[in-house]
Amino acid sequence: ARSLKKRLTRTKNIQVGDLTTQLKRCLTTFDITMLGVGHMIGAGIYVLTGAVIKNTSGPAIIGSFFLCGVAATLSALCYAEFGARFPKAGSAYTYVYVGCGELWAFIIGWNIVLEHMLHAAAVARTWSGYVDVLTNGYISNTTISTIGTLAECLNPFSPNPFSLQKGSLLGSYPDIIAVLVIVIGAGFVALGSKAATNFNTFFTTCNLVVISFVVIYGSTFVDFKNWEGLAPDGIHSRFMPYGVDGMLAGAAACFFAFVGFDGLATAGEEAKNPSKSIPHATYISMVIVTTAYILMSAILSLMIPFEQVHPSSAFADAFSFVGSPWAKYVVAAGSLCGITTSLFGALFSLPRCVYSMADDGLIFSWWAKVNAKTQTPFNAVLSFSAMSAIFALLFDVEALVNFLSIGTLLAYSIVSASLVILRYQPAPISPQEPHLKDHGGRLRVRIPGLSPIIDRMEPGDSVLYSLIFMIFCFTCFGALISSSFYSTAVGLILLAMSVIGGIGSLIFIDMHYQNTQELAFKVFLVPYLPTASLLINILMMCHLGVMTWIRLTIWMIIGFAIYLIYGIKHSKMEVSGAEKFTKSSTYDSVVIASRLPDSV
């Protein structure tokens, strides 16, 4: 049992100054920023906004996007510090592997691979659906008349093929166009990083121009009466017709729109100076994206009453509503550019996360092979783009999107928690004397009766236990809020206990010394900002549906089976005995990497 625990918690070690890679270092801060913006501003802003305004939050969607933006920005800051600490590819997967251990790394990596696969499939189906709307249903009608419905394709011999009910996982027809879009996008990704990012930059620029047009031209049609008075139910205001719960539920749904900034970190092994480029690109792209989402949703809800917003083609329909039908063609062009860059971002990030996991031996090493000419993980591009294409061919967009948010929020939460853990681990005082450690993880004050117990622990262990208890309190708090059980007497008592426990744990963590390690970028107000990120993420996860949690549980069971049967035995840490290295080697390499000059 002790040996198994050691294998599950072993951390990946990076040797001093290790920035070597099989991939080509050719990306600048600008390239990575545009990659992040393109990944995030896509299907969410054009397709998701209308449905959320009409059915979930109303004009309060600007609050939903603001909440998402705050949560994503807090998580992005945590990612940025990890990018400065560990300038290697693989996103949160590598960060947590180096900082917290192999099991947590596999959990995050497994979720991120699914996230990018489903994201690519959902966006590809959205691209196809948008073109179908612009052509008045030509694509869907032609596919059904030529091939048949998906029900008929899957059950051709039955005289009464099963019907696909609303809410089914499967789409209404096999989406051939979505498959072709993924194949073309994967082709550009396989050509190489620089060619791929140039392609992305062009379409992202076109999309930002269209967004500026919508905000500037749409502002000439705003009517603040759409935010005033009472909603049709006569109870809530028009600005918040579904109440605070609706705004929170809208935030949980809108978080799909922010899926993608974690993909910036996957470019770490192809950035010229990842320790500076990744943090800078992360927070610049987050500011651009959050501002664009809030402005776009505000303009839409001021142009047209929320109950009249079209759920799937909101902006085009809004311009027709105010008497400018020609503008819908500009919106259509921006939509296709935005959806294309969002698809490309997912396809770019997916094989790089797979490459990192395969290179570490946690999944099949065949996926870690790099093409000698293009210097890209070609096998990973081919295999996982094909899987995304299968998802796009068969599954419904709504089913794909609903499964995206929870895995992403889980990954972001683990990164925020990992940052707190790393800040309270002892670090070498200087690279020349790695055996001499600072006071990281030790109490700053003496607590009668408790200090002797903590002194016998390893530095940072008391912070870890407090963090676990704090997450438990936050989860109880979120469950009580989302279920409305807090309105009962027992629920109110439990709510108060959760709040007191969470605040008490936070204060106890802050009573410890942080390590003095120097980095190119460090999150400020630790542990408060990572804790705020944790709380918001957990609140949003608690507002997701039961079926989403069930699907996540099934996916994680499959992942644990793969890891325990294959990954734990084939891990490089297992094969090479790398666990013999000490943490000091990692800290040395981080200090050296963080001091490299920036090349933009």
Automatic annotation (TrEMBL):
Record-annotated membrane-spanning stretches: 32-53, 59-80, 92-113, 173-192, 199-219, 239-261, 282-306, 326-348, 378-395, 401-422, 463-483, 489-509, 521-540, 546-566
InterPro entries: AA/rel_permease1, CAT_C
The entry's keywords: Membrane, Transmembrane, Transmembrane helix, Transport
Domain called Cationic amino acid transporter C-terminal: residue spans: 521-571
GO terms of molecular function: amino acid transmembrane transporter activity
Membrane topology: Multi-pass membrane protein
Name listed for the protein in its UniProt record: Cationic amino acid transporter C-terminal domain-containing protein
Organism of origin: Pristionchus entomophagus
